[in-house]
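B., you asked whether I could sanity-check this one before it goes into the benchmark set. Here's the sequence:
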Amino acid sequence: MHSTTGDISGPLADGPVRLEASLTRGTRALTPGTRALSWLSATCIGSSILIMVFASLVRSDWMYPPVVMPAIGPPWAVSTHMSAGVVVTSLWVATVLGATGVVAGLVAVQRGARFNVRALLITAAVAVAVLTVMLPAGSTDAFDYASYGRLVTLGHSPYVWTPYSLLQTDDAFGVSVPIAWEHWVSVYGPLATVVNFLAAKLGGISVARTVFWLKLWDSIAFGIVAFVMDRLLRRDPARRLRAHLLWTINPLLLWDLVAAGHVEVLAAGLGMLGIVALGEHSAASRPSTLRVVTAGALIGAAAEIKINYALFGLGLTWALRRSPKALAQAAAAALAVLLPGYLWFGPPAVRALTDNRNIASGDNFYRFFVVDPDWRKHLAAIAAVLVVGMAILALRRLPEGARARPAVRPTIALSAAWLFFWPYQLPWYEAMIICLLVLYPASRLDWLVLALVAAGTLASIPGNPHAPSGVVANLHHFFVVTFAPLVLLAAAIGLVALCVTGRWKLSEPGEPPDTAPPETVGLVPTTAS
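And here's what the prediction gave me:
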């Protein structure tokens, strides 16, 4: 028989570049097409990760803001005078390779292929560790977080003061304040501000050290999500592999969450843990008080980082709607975590949640319809109607799945409505739905979510670079104003179509738990024993 955690010697020691070399063993029972998909998945994912590591290593050559590096210790970077156009183009290639690799891997697993999970996890852990000890790349958001944390250490509220003030008063931090958001107060919740403050205290006057601590905590959260879903799905090899392809070894998430150091991964981790904390139970039963209170507190913490994670609270409410007592306990726990921070920072922190409601990301599909400036004033209202309508439709039409965890399905439905239809979206926001999709049966919703991440990542690259060449600039403009909006619009229409037609093609790939898989291939395959 075949083991799902067999020999990991050989190509593993050489890193992602040699992953595909192991695909020649243990593949006889698979069709040629499935073997080809397995090779394609390993090659594309490994190549994508290597390109992203390279781009992060030479980040100072192609991205603003400038950063004074510490004399010793992380983060690390090199200066090679690499062309910004070369790096940006390479990252676009890496995005396409990463998306292709994930899709090919998912299809291969559906057809019976089995990757060695132990080797996959070690490879992902190495990639996360390497990306963590480098400066944030692909986005300047981590430097905004650092600026807000620095303001708090100086005794100022980031909901009143803007990073621009550091340009005038703080030579150490001022040089690394990103231009794009220098006049904006924080749009993150109080718990995110606490995280930023702690990083700034540990980093001292060093911006590089501050963003390192921020990235370290994000990477730990990323790893916790991977660990939790691995343990939850360990008895089902196919679902376990699907989960790791969607999250752990997904190059798009490694770039958007780990390399860039986005705080959304902290919120996603807390939100997922909150849903999982309820445990397995039927829709008619009531979880224990401890589970209910823990779930409410964790989801409250997630919403205190990013307020849109209040949608997880609505999903929890749906799951507990038959038990008023449990619902009240969960709400009390969530408010006990959520309210103190907002009370401490006062009304400015509350206003920060609504002041920017009419802004839209550059690649939003509303740009095709809302061209009149007067209409733009009502963009939030228009989008809110569509989000609510989509949420109702998804709640009614999304198939039953993960029956033992009744909060998963409604939370996915609500998150999908917001992610697909709200006009301000960035690819790292998709962490909030992917961390739950791993607990839900495979369906065509997987492909729509991956399309959002891939198109959004293409549009978000290069992320405030040094001025690239004309061709690269023109391609970036095309991705932002044409390609990505068309993909996002098609995905939104696709979600509506799935709800209306019911053609989700819901499936649980693979065999029942505790059954040996038919074949083992992939990222260091297993050996017969």
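One thing to flag: Residues 1-28, 510-529 have pLDDT under 50 and may be disordered. Otherwise nothing jumped out at me.
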